[in-house]
Amino acid sequence: MNDTEKLKARINIALYRQRNGAAVDTMTRMSGDKSRNYGVALTTIRQIASEYAPCQPLADMLYAGDVRDHRLAALYIADPTSFDHDKTLRWMRDVRTTEVADCAAQALFCKIPDIITVAMPLINEEPLVSHTAVISAARALGSMKTEPHTVTEFISRLSQIKERTDRTTLSAFTFMLTVLERDGYGTEVSAFIDTLPSESQEELGWIKG
């Protein structure tokens, strides 16, 4: 057993001790995800993971597995500066649940250099990957000084999936448009919402203020 495997064993024990069977049943029913699951609360996972961060080899090992709690811990252990374009694509395409997508966007992906450029081509992929890309880029746009043309291009890219009405896509739209409206791009947001199908316009119209 090498050093990384020893660290994985230690964090596995720490997470397993916090397992919650009742939470597992609820999570499985809500998400439909059949992965192994200890049911540990996200705040607890984050606290445990903080003791190991940053450690990219450990994060890689945990994220490659099939345990929900391990994969979430990996997001808080990973080092954003160690991600190049290809590695970011692999991790984004390996997101398996909206829970991991949303946590990954906030804890890791939005901190990766040039994440907007990486995320844009993924907007037109399957809904969960698209959701991850949109949320990650939106968080990055909301936390950095971004050139207006970058925002315009990002919104333009969203036109590729504007006909989708699935809940995953609408959730991503809601978050992204709220961030951009807050940051002074109300005109662009309103114009984009007006191009959506009527059902989506009704759902997102409140963002226009």
Description:
- The chain is mostly helical.
- It has helices at 3-16, 21-31, 42-50, 56-63, 68-77, 85-93, 98-107, 115-119, 127-143, 148-158, 167-182, 186-193, 198-204.
- The radius of gyration is 18 Å and the shape is globular.
Reconstruct the topology from this structure.
Layout (H helix, E strand, L loop, with lengths): L2 H14 L4 H11 L10 H9 L5 H8 L4 H10 L7 H9 L4 H10 L7 H5 L7 H17 L4 H11 L8 H16 L3 H8 L4 H7 L5
Helix pairs in contact: 1-4, 3-5, 4-5, 5-7, 7-9, 9-11, 11-12
β-strand number: 0
Q: Which class do the helix and strand fractions yield?
A: mainly alpha
The fraction of residues assigned to DSSP E strands is under 5%
pLDDT < 50 runs, ≥5 residues = none
Oligomer: single chain
Mean pLDDT equals 85
N-to-C order of helices and strands:
HHHHHHHHHHHHH
Helix content: 55-70%
Please count the helical segments.
13
- What gyration radius follows from the Cα positions, in whole Å? 18 Å
Distance between the termini: 57 Å
| Approximate shape | globular
**Largest sheet at a glance?**
none
Give me a quick take on this structure.
The protein is built from 13 helices and no strands. Helix 5 runs parallel beside helix 7 (98-107) and helix 7 runs parallel beside helix 9 (127-143). The chain has 209 residues and is mostly helical.
List the defining traits of the structure above.
mainly alpha, single chain, 13 helices, globular, 209 residues
